[in-house]
Amino acid sequence: MRTFKLTLEYDGSRYSGWQAQINAPRTVQGELQRVAGELFGVEVDIQGAGRTDAGVHAIGQVAHLKTRTAGGELSSPRLLREFNDRLPSSIAVLECVEAPPRFHARHDAVSRAYFYQISTRKAALSKRFVWWIKEPLNVDGMQKAAALIAGRHNFVCFRAADPSRPGESTTVEVTSAEVGRDEDMVVFRIEASHFVWKMVRRLTGTLVKVGLGEVSVEEFDGLLGGRKNPKLDVAAWTAPASGLFLEVVRY
After folding, report:
1. CA nearest 213: which of 136, 143, 134?
2. According to the model, what pLDDT value does residue 72 have?
3. CA 52-90-3 angle, 5° bins
4. Segments forming the whole domain that contains residue 57
5. pLDDT at 219
6. Does residue 145 share a domain with residue 90?
7. Using CB atoms within 10 A as the burial measure, which of 27, 43, 131, 246 is most buried?
8. CA distance 121 to 36
């Protein structure tokens, strides 16, 4: 058994997410499996550390590639070159290293960090990578709300039901969360051991509602306590996928 650790970046706007699916026309994992099949001549096991949704991007996704084929000529440097020569321009392998046989990109990960970009002006060149909010945002209020996220919470109010994971716990330990501003860009960053489905995008959408003055910091805190509020339609506030990036996976 040979195992390789791949670090990737990709523009997710052209894909139906990371995970290969029967009915999905194009996925990041599917493109990697296609190229790996060409290189090794057999089906290989490729799994990622995070299942990014359709339209979500990555600058630090990690995947493992496991094969029982010896492939003696396929060293890590050659694999790196071959993948980048054969993959679409929207996917790049940044690093390829041989890893211990039991290395698992998802199970061995300690935490994952995401960031979400909100543009406060129309962005002609980066529109695929931001969410444009036309109305003024109270960033101080967003920062106060984001500061409440770190810690152990029941994120049931921010979770979409995941049919592939019935009965999944909605309790998540968040290492850090913050909102910052750099000129015309407001960025929400969050790191946790794991995330429930659509959690980051729903947190982002609700933080924007705080910034617009439509949700108070106290109401946001209540949602973090797992207390559903019929007046707050969090699902309807889910931020678009365009601004979300998987930043780094820690081991």
Report:
1. 136
2. 62
3. 65
4. 2-99
5. 97
6. no
7. 246
8. 41
DSSP class of 81 = H
Classify residue 51 by burial, with Cβ atoms within 10 Å: 0-12, 13-18, 19+. middle
pLDDT score, position 161: 83
| Segments of the chain scoring below 50 in pLDDT | none
Number of domains in the chain: 2
CATH number at 225 reads: 3.30.70.660
Q: Are the CB atoms for 12 and 241 separated by under 8 Å? A: yes
Residue with tokens 């909010």: 133
Q: Which of the 8 DSSP states describes residue 238? A: P
> Which residue from 195, 202, 221, 193 is spatially nearest to 158, judged by alpha carbons?
202
Give the integer Cα–Cα distance in Å for 148 and 151.
8
Strands 57-67 and 244-250, by their bridges, are parallel
Cα–Cα distance measured from residue 179 to residue 207, given in angstroms and rounded to the nearest whole number: 9
Question: Of 99, 120, 146, which one is at a domain's C-terminal end?
Answer: 99
> How far apart (Å, rounded) are the C-alpha atoms in residues 50 and 58?
10
> Are residues 25 and 116 part of one domain?
no
Contacts of residues 22-29 at CB distance under 8 Å and 24 or more positions apart, as own/partner, are 28/52, 28/58, 28/61, 28/91, 29/63
Strand partners, 181: 186
CA distance 251 to 235: 32
55 part of a folded domain: yes
Catalytic center residues: 53
Q: Which of 118, 242, 119 is CA-nearest to residue 189?
A: 118
Helix (H, G, I), strand (E, B) or coil at 148: coil
Report pLDDT digits (tens) over 170-195: 999 999 999 999 999 999 999 999 99
pLDDT score at 98: 95
Task: Tell me the sheet residues that pair with 119.
Answer: 132, 185
